[in-house]
């Protein structure tokens, strides 16, 4: 059991190589290889999660060297949550991508490379190793965004590459400052050494600032979020769902690790300005992301700006720095991955089925495509925070944590965020359910023709094929958003020992 953690990285890396080599023999053989790899990854993640939540964290030191000299991998409640989330979401998106595409072996090889990078970031207990996996994740994500047809995807990937490189460079500089100050890279040892050096040291403060800002770029915190709307809107639908659900989520998890495992709450107490900066970043990101989402006409760009706002909630929970808020942050990370990934898949399904890609195109959608309309409606209301969906539980914990900390400005903005989220989703739902399509007869005829579309075949209008697997995936995401909300309070109780150790 203790030897299993490295396979969370090794298995998808091996699957990536196999998919690439298999493409030399048989084209489009990558999907079954990716599915088998993701299934094995999910099984390993589940086994380790049961172990981590059932007792002490699972620890492994690469190469047999003792920590802090060896690269340590740790599976506790937080990292177990992330590896299970990565594996499950990756497997779910594969169900959508089988027909939706892209279908090349190179795509699936890169897909599995991203899975390896995200898993590595989740379980590493070494800051330089986290940087390595951050770069692997970034390079794979840039390539996946560029996998779409046309210049829009290429431009989005280039912008993502340029901005992401700046973020990774800042993160590396922060590691360098920490190493100069302490001479170690292991997170636990680094935490002790930073305390010994003193939280008022300019090197320590500079390291914190660089690491946090570098991760802000990866999370897409306003105003350094500019890569995200272009990347999400320009990528293929399956890629938009994958990176929106996982890439910024794991970066936000890394922020939690850096702030609380490496620098600890004592650093925030000794440097109130750092906590003020986190609060300010959260408030601005929540408000600006929501306002920008309201102004968007294209659905995918609206969802992208929504993510800017939603990750502001996570930064706010980090700034509050108590157990209740951090529990909410973890619940919201899981919930956002399911809800936002599901929304991107649903918007892609709707676009393939009806050619609707803008807010106005969704007029009368409930009559034309009831399955897609229902899934979008459930996921949108879950994102707003309507009980019993998981979006409500995460926000409730974060708001309660802010009240406990007496962070009243943040409490006000957290409550306002629900109204702002409702503002941009309500206008879409109003068009879906309370507007008639301007060309209802033509649309009805088109919808009737599309019911004959089968897996792997397009329609006469040239739209991409729509499969039963694509429909099942979005329905499952909508159901899961509600089920997770029902189970979220029990999950929060399971997290209590891990978060207590994190804040001790």
TrEMBL record:
The keyword Transmembrane helix applies. It is found in: Cell membrane. Keywords: Cell membrane, Membrane, Transmembrane, Transmembrane helix. Residues 126-421 form the NADH:quinone oxidoreductase/Mrp antiporter transmembrane domain. Its main location: membrane. Residues 445-466 are annotated as: Disordered. Signal peptide: none annotated. It comes from the Archaea. Pfam families: Proton_antipo_M. The chain crosses the membrane at residues 6-25, 32-53, 73-94, 106-124, 130-148, 160-182, 202-227, 239-260, 272-295, 302-323, 329-350, 371-394, 406-426, 472-489. This is Monovalent cation/H+ antiporter subunit D family protein.
């Amino acid at each position: 059991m203790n030897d299993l953690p490295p396979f969370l990285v090794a298995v998808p890396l091996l699957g990536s190589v196999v998919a690439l080599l298999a493409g030399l023999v048989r084209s489009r053989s990558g999907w079954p290889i990716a599915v088998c790899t993701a299934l094995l990854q999910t099984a390993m993640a589940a086994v380790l999660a049961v172990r981590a939540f059932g007792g002490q964290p699972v620890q492994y030191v690469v190469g047999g060297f003792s920590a802090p000299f060896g690269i340590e991998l740790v599976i506790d409640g937080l990292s177990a949550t992330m590896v299970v989330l990565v594996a499950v979401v990756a497997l779910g998106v594969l169900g959508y991508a089988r027909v939706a595409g892209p279908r090349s072996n190179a795509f699936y090889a890169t897909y599995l490379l991203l899975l390896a990078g995200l898993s590595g970031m989740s379980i590493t207990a070494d800051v330089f190793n986290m940087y390595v996996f951050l770069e692997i994740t970034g390079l794979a994500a840039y390539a996946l965004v560029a996998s779409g047809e046309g210049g829009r995807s290429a431009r989005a990937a280039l912008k993502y590459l340029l901005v992401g490189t700046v973020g990774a460079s800042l993160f590396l500089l922060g590691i360098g400052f920490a190493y100069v100050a302490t001479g170690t890279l292991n997170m636990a040892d680094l935490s002790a050494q930073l305390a010994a050096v003193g939280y008022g040291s300019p090197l320590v403060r500079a390291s914190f600032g660089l690491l946090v800002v570098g991760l802000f770029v990866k999370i897409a915190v306003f105003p350094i979020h500019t890569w995200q709307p272009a990347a999400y809107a320009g990528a293929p639908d399956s890629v938009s769902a994958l990176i929106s659900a996982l890439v910024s989520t794991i970066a936000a998890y890394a922020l939690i690790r850096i702030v609380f495992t490496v620098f600890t709450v004592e650093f925030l107490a000794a440097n109130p300005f750092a906590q003020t900066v986190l609060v300010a970043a959260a408030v601005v990101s929540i408000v600006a992301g929501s306002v920008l989402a309201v102004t968007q006409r294209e659905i995918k760009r609206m969802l992208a700006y929504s993510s800017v706002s939603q990750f502001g909630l996570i930064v706010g929970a980090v700034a509050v720095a108590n157990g209740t808020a951090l529990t909410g942050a973890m619940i919201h990370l899981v919930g956002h991955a399911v809800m936002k990934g599901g929304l991107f898949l649903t918007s892609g399904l709707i676009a393939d089925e009806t050619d609707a890609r803008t807010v106005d195109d969704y007029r009368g959608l409930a009559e034309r495509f009831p399955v897609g309309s229902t899934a979008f409606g459930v996921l949108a209301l879950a994102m707003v925070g309507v009980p019993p969906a998981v979006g409500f539980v995460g926000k409730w914990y974060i708001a309660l944590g802010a009240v406990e900390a007496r962070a009243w400005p943040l409490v006000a903005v957290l409550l306002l965020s629900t109204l702002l989220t409702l503002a941009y989703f309500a206008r879409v739902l109003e068009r879906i359910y309370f507007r008639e399509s301007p060309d209802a007869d033509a649309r009805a005829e088109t919808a009737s023709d599309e019911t004959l579309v089968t897996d792997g075949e397009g329609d006469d209008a040239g739209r991409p094929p729509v499969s039963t697997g694509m429909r099942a995936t979005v329905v499952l995401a909508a159901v899961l958003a509600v089920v997770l909300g029902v189970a979220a309070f029990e999950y929060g109780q399971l997290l209590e020992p891990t978060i207590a150790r994190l804040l001790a």
